[in-house]
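Session log. Operator J.P. requested a structure for one protein chain; no other inputs attached. Running the standard single-chain path with token output.
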Amino acid sequence: MVAKYERKKDSINATLSPSIKKRVIELVDSEEYSSMSDVVSQALNMLFAEIDMKNQTNDYAKKHQTEEQEQFEREIWKQKGIAYQKMGELEKAIECYDRALGIEEEKDKELPKNTRKVFFE
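Structure written below.
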């Protein structure tokens, strides 16, 4: 009895343009690759690596863009707080500074209001 050979790779049928097919055949004929399948697999691996790199770059850019946006917004709240403080509107100034610092309202409620006024008088 002869053992049955099982293929370890999946098969994909694809239609190629004549120019691409010609280049694939040239690569196989040059013995740089052993088969058309090897050429296509290598090309797809390179494509996927490029896509992954672009995605990582985009994720990095989005993360830093978000951080820059948050920093910009904090600076706006800080400047608004300074303006209110100069006008003597300390409650509004405190609210703006809290927003600039990212203090949540829940934590804010735990502190007595006049505790924070000391810093602005």
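Operator note: Residues 34-117 form one domain.
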